[in-house]
Design brief:
It contains 9 helices and 2 strands, in the order E-E-H-H-H-H-H-H-H-H-H. With 286 residues, the chain is an all-alpha fold. Strands 1-2 form a two-stranded antiparallel ribbon. Helix 1 packs parallel to helix 3, helix 3 runs antiparallel to helix 8 and helix 7 runs antiparallel to helix 8. The C terminus is likely disordered.
Length: 286
Amino acid sequence: LRDIELIAAPGVRLRPVAVPKRRSALLFEQANLAGHSYVASGLLALTLIFGLASFTRARAAGPQHGAAAFAAAVVTGAALLAAVTITGSRTAFFGGALGLLALSGLAARASFMRARRWLLPVLGIVALALAAVLAVQPAGDLLGRLAFWTAGPGDANQVSRVEIWKVALAGIREAPMTGWGAEGFPDLWREHFPADGRAVPQHAHDFWLQLGVAYGLPGILAALWLTGALLVRAVRAGGGAPLLVVVALLAMQLFDHTLTFVGLLLPLTAVLNGSSRTPVQPSSRR
């Protein structure tokens, strides 16, 4: 049970009633997968809008193109954060905000928006500030599960990431070479918490720990190899936007396990394969 709320019924004493948060998964099987996929697709769209990928060779022809790209970036960024918010994925929200802010700063620094390069970073900072205010405001719950740092009566029913990571590390120590199998984390959790009435976590909520639990030390080495390969490929693709996208998606993997999901891999592959070594040149026209 999550987010227990006390309500008054006529003629009886207060009693606890479970009020689950509504989370949208759209066409995906799970809300967190949806949120992470939205982030990857949104960051790909921003690289296209800012002209940071080679398959958008049209550069700024003047102020009108800069204004149109700025408006498109604002709409895309707002849609990205809104889509992620309705999924209730906290990791995706902050990963998306990080990627949005980083790409905006890169475009403002290196591209056709040279004349108003301060606008995009300011926009990102204001958006993050407003999101934080909405999340912690005392009356209401406009951002739902994103207000995870506020104390609530349902907190005792939730499993913390720290607890999950401790169990994952213990599992790796217990089976360092064979692991527990791809679907073995629930069994590992029950072994350590046999009488726990909380919902059983389905994975380690960390990409590297999850592969370690599933396949032992070979799994951890494979995860590290994939991480290094993505970073090297991003640098070889020209750094800048590809590297920022990879870092944002890897940052989300610190708290979840979605990197090998097709909703992330397809946009990430498009960014890495479509990016150019040639940096974006600022327009000579103002």
